[in-house]
Amino acid sequence: MFPSARDKPAVTLNTDDPPMFGATLDGEYVAVAETLGLTAAEIALFAKNAVEASFLPSADKTALLREIDEILLQDPELLA
Description:
The chain is mainly alpha-helical. Helix content is 65%, strand content 0%. Belongs to the metallo-dependent hydrolases superfamily. Adenosine and AMP deaminases family.
């Protein structure tokens, strides 16, 4: 597992001014995964960190975190 995703402060992926830079959030996830050779489970940590760092109500955070886990569990190859 990529050490900074597991052992260091929470990391999130974000876009800044997408129209100006031509960036999309899904594109950023793909770029990071390909550049660092991360697995889907490791990339999911970034999404989970973003949920935890959000200002959503606790119940919404719980639902989103559960949804991320369910997506990973639907395809065992994603956890490899």
